[in-house]
Design a protein that fits this description.
Strand content: over 45%
Number of strands: 68
Distance between the termini: 166 Å
Number of helices: 1
Radius of gyration: 60 Å
Structural class: mainly beta
């Protein structure tokens, strides 16, 4: 027996500087997780025979480059996550030459959509030395490095997220090839995005790593390739007839090797989306070719039912429904003590319709005694080729021998036409002879339904409504099943809901399953309902109303018939023509109905029921036509003088309308009809309201407010004034275009807005102004004339009560005055606010010496203070 071992490997990251011939191979994948999150995975296959434990890198560092510019973008560190041993087909044949473990590295990374946008895409690479020193087809493999390489697209294209996962390469095979014998391996990969995959052979990349620099700093592409041994090149990586090749579409590798040895060859898997390349994955393979000992072919034979001869391929076997359904099968081998395994595989039909009865494995020619192993293959009773020829392969395989030769097999293809075992349909019966029921509210329909199957197949009893759902009625009928027989009880309580339909049909079904297909028998029952109908339900009559107003009450006749008290529901439709009706707004449950304010044409009808189970009676439909309102009139306000009338004007927007004037926005008094309205005399600004009324009596919306603005009184004579006898004051009139003061006494110009007034006694002036609008207004101003002060100039302090105090004549007219007395040197000896207590010639209660003293009197108004001297005499 010959056991094959193909080791395919793509490795992307080695970052520790230990040099060793330890790398068998591996692959790297970029898997999309979600959003812009990805997982970078490295499967590294490690040579445990030739590699040292110290060469296992705990962390690998992968550099990502921008493909269009070869600019480094980032470096990703991948730590070891798991390590496990690879298993082979025959460990006895592999232990001495190959022992490989899988080291799994990965890390989750974020590909920033603001960074990974280059149209040419990106590539990740890693360089490491060295390859297995036992490789036969490259120069100095122990000095040859490996560059692992994967390409992927930008994560954003045309402003939108572009999601992609690299192809997932199939796991490495666990067989190896034999010299001079055809070897194949299905290299087909999977792609999570459904992209097109294309395969080809490429020369493995060497890169810049050496035994002296096993893990060089990251460098960008292009990378040097490995050097082939003489006679080898990219098209003859493993020489043979044929040399190693790969199908570009299926990924199937084929080689018939000419020489023994360990051979490296490279495979590339490119992915395309919509005809455009978006990425690629590279992988290096190692194929061990051995000189295998010879192994004899096994053989398999079959006998059709009722025949003693072996079956000849290509002759269809006819198996009818009542024929035996098993074939005898014999298998053997030309070698002694050869373990054999028998299997069957459907070629052109579902592979679940057959099974072996007896052994499917054993040792042929045990102890050197020639003979055959025997078993049977039987077809299921339900297998049905429906007249077509089915193909079934019987396959016998040996496992080679302990000399590790290539396993061999023999295939016998059976052709047959088969019919299923016959099956009789089930039967159905009802416990009642009735098939038509007439019912009223309160009745109950009840009977049993039984299904039977003569073949004792499992049967199920069920029911369905024709044109209605059983779940909408008070029906109980549980589905029931059993072997050979099943019974279920039907019960229907007739209620109001049931009376809403005149006729019901129920279909009862008994179903048995034969060969996975349902076989049914049915029985139909009809149920007819009866109820007393309501009549004489009419309403009247059509109306026309204005937009936004209510219609008059709609009245209806008194209904007759029905089983109980009448219940009313008024309904309304607002379609352009009577259509879908819904409950009318407001109080809609009386015999008559008054619509609410309407804004569009409406149709009304009355629905009457009598008792819970009566059929609703729907009346005729009446239409309420809604007439549009006239548009609001245009208008012009005005201004007027106080005490005069105002003329207001408005214009109708629609034809055939009149204008009405009111004193309130709603209600109020009708003042006038027409386009022009002259008000009564007004003294303050007043608002009036106008509306349009058309020939249908419809009034425009809210009344328009028209204002008669009374101009504000503008005369301003100024504040009242006070002067001292003989003085004068300037007047400041405001508010008009012309001015007139009266009386003219003491005025410099009575027609000047700002005359000078010099009255001799207190006087009141009246100012009359005329505005630019011609309005005349008046205002008054009073000028108070005060007498002058007359202070005495001596005080006689002789105690005769004559001139003992200082007397100031007319001081009482100046209550806000301030009187101060000083010595000749400026010392203040008297200070009084107002002059309620006259000065008696003392200071701090002591008499002052005779002398002249000086006074200053501030009148408390905008006048110059009065000053002079007073003499004390004793």
């Amino acid at each position: 027996m010959k056991v094959r071992l193909l080791l395919l490997l793509l490795v992307l990251c080695f970052c520790r500087p230990a040099a060793a011939t330890h790398i068998v191979g591996g692959e790297m994948e970029l898997r999309h997780i979600d959003g812009y999150n990805y997982r970078l995975v490295l499967n590294l296959y490690f040579d445990q025979i030739n590699g040292s434990p110290g060469a296992k890198d705990p962390v690998n560092y992968i550099t990502i480059f921008e493909k269009g510019t070869n600019k480094a973008v980032t470096t990703v560190s991948l730590p070891i996550r798991e390590e496990k041993q690879l298993s082979y087909t025959n460990i006895n044949c592999t232990t001495g030459e190959l022992k490989t473990s899988l080291i799994l590295y990965y890390e989750d990374i974020y590909l920033n959509p603001a960074v990974y946008t280059h149209a040419a895409g990106y590539y990740a690479s890693w360089e490491r030395c060295c390859r297995n020193n036992t490789v036969s087809n490259i120069v100095s493999p122990q000095d040859a490095g490996i560059t692992f390489y994967v390409e992927f697209p930008a994560v954003v294209k045309n402003g939108s997220a572009f999601v992609n996962s690299s192809p997932r390469l199939s796991p490495p095979p666990t067989d190896y090839a034999c010299q001079g014998e055809l070897f194949s391996y299905n290299f087909s990969s999977t792609d999570a995005d459904g992209d097109e995959l294309v395969y080809d052979l490429v020369t493995p990349l060497n890169g810049y790593s050496t035994p002296g620099v096993p893990a060089p700093p990251a460098s960008s592409a292009p990378y040097p390739e490995i050097n082939w041994q003489a006679g080898h090149d990219v098209n003859n990586q493993i020489r043979g007839s044929p040399a190693v090749r790969i199908d570009r579409n299926t990924g199937m590798l084929v080689v018939n090797p000419t020489y023994v040895g360990l051979f490296v060859f490279g495979v590339r898997c490119q992915e395309f989306r919509d005809g455009v390349k978006i990425g690629e994955v590279r992988r290096d393979f190692q194929l061990l070719v051995k000189d295998c000992p010879r192994n004899e072919n096994p053989e398999v034979f079959a006998q059709p039912p009722g025949s003693t001869n072996y079956y000849s391929e290509g002759q269809p076997i006819q198996i009818n429904g009542t024929d035996p359904r098993c074939l005898n099968v014999f298998f053997t081998d030309g070698d002694n003590d050869e373990p054999l395994t028998l299997s069957a595989k459907a070629v052109n039909f579902d592979g679940n319709g057959f099974s072996f009865t007896g052994l499917t494995s054993g040792v042929a020619n045990a102890g050197g005694i020639k003979g055959m192993l025997e078993t049977s293959i039987c077809f299921d009773p339900c297998l049905d080729s429906e007249g077509k020829v089915y193909l079934l392969d019987l396959i016998v395989s040996d496992d080679g021998d302990q000399g590790c030769s290539l396993p061999r097999q023999d295939t016998l293809r059976l052709s047959f036409v088969i019919a299923p075992t016959p099956d009789q349909p089930p039967a159905i019966s009802l416990s009642t002879p009735n098939r038509v029921f007439e019912v009223v509210e309160g009745d109950v329909i009840s009977f049993d339904v039984t299904g039977t199957d003569p073949d004792q197949d499992n049967v199920t009893v069920s029911a369905t409504g024709k044109g209605f759902d059983l779940g909408t009625q008070q029906i109980t009928f549980p589905a029931n099943s059993g072997t050979g027989q099943a019974t279920s009880s039907f019960n229907w309580q007739i209620d109001c809901a049931a009376l809403q339909q005149a006729v019901y049909q129920l279909e009862f079904t008994v179903t048995s399953i034969s060969c996975g297909k349902p076989i049914t028998t049915t029985e139909t029952v009809e149920v007819r309902t009866k109820q007393d109908k309501i009549s004489n339900n009419r309403v009247s009559q059509d109306q026309t109303v204005c937009y936004g107003t209510s219609a008059a009450a709609i009245t209806g006749t008194t209904p007759t018939g029905g089983p109980g008290t009448y219940t009313y529901l008024w309904e309304m439709s607002t379609a352009d023509a009577p259509g879908v009706f819904a409950a009318a707004p407001g109080n809609n449950s009386l015999p008559d109905y008054t619509p609410t304010a309407l804004t569009q044409n409406c149709w009304f009808r009355r629905k009457v029921t009598a008792g819970a189970c009566s059929e609703a009676s729907v009346s005729n439909e009446i239409k309420v036509t809604v007439m549009p309102l006239p548009l609001a009139p245009s208008f012009t306000g005005t201004t007027t003088c106080s005490g005069e009338t105002a003329t207001l004007t408005a214009a109708a927007t629609d034809a055939d309308t009149i204008l009405e004037w009111y004193d309130q926005p709603t209600g109020g008094n009708l003042l006038h009809e027409g386009t022009t309205y002259q008000t009564m005399t007004v003294s303050t600004t007043t608002h009036y309201y106008v509306q349009a009324v058309n020939s249908n009596g419809c009034v425009s919306g809210a009344r328009a407010k028209v204002t008669a603005e009374v101009l504000d009184a503008a005369a301003d004579a100024g504040e009242d004034l006070t002067i001292i006898e003989g003085g004068s004051a300037g007047l400041r009139g405001k508010g008009g275009e012309t001015y007139s003061w009266s009386p003219a006494t003491g005025l410099s110009d009575p027609n000047d807005a700002k005359p000078l007034a010099t009255p001799t006694e207190t006087i009141t002036y009246t100012l009359t102004v005329t505005t630019k609008n011609g309005c005349t207004y008046t205002d008054e101003l009073t000028i108070t004339v005060l007498p002058r002060l007359d202070p005495t100039n001596t005080i006689t302090m002789n105690g005769d009560n004559i001139n003992d105090n200082w007397h100031i004549r007319n001081i009482e007219y100046y209550p806000d005055c301030r009187v101060q007395v000083f010595t000749r040197w400026g010392a203040q000896i008297f200070d009084s606010k107002g002059y309620q207590e006259p000065w008696d010639g003392t200071h701090n209660g002591k008499p002052l010496p005779m002398a002249a003293y000086y006074y200053n009197i501030d009148l408390g108004m905008k006048e110059k203070p009065i000053s002079g001297s007073i003499t004390l005499i004793k």
